[in-house]
Amino acid sequence: MANAKFEKLKDKISDFQAYVKEKKGFEGKINGDSIDFPEMKPSELKQLLKKYLHKGKLEEDYRIVSKSGTMTVVEKKYYEAED
Q: What is the rounded CA–CA span in Å between residue 27 and residue 36?
C-alpha cells in the first residue's frame, strides 16, 4: 500500500488522482489531504509523483519526501549564501 500526502497542494489532489488513473488504471481513495493506493508499490507512486510534478512545472518549487510508504509533497527550501 502506498500513500501520497499533499500538504501544500491540496487543490491538486483530484488532478493527481485522475493522472494516476490515466497512467496506471488505479483508483485512489481521497482522505483529506492524502490519497491511498492499496494496490500500488511506494516506489511506483514516487515515480508517478515525480512525473506529475515535472508535467505540471511544479518541480522547481516542490519535492517528494518518502517515509515508510508515505510520499509527502513539500515545498523546497532555498537558502541564500552568505558572503
A: 9
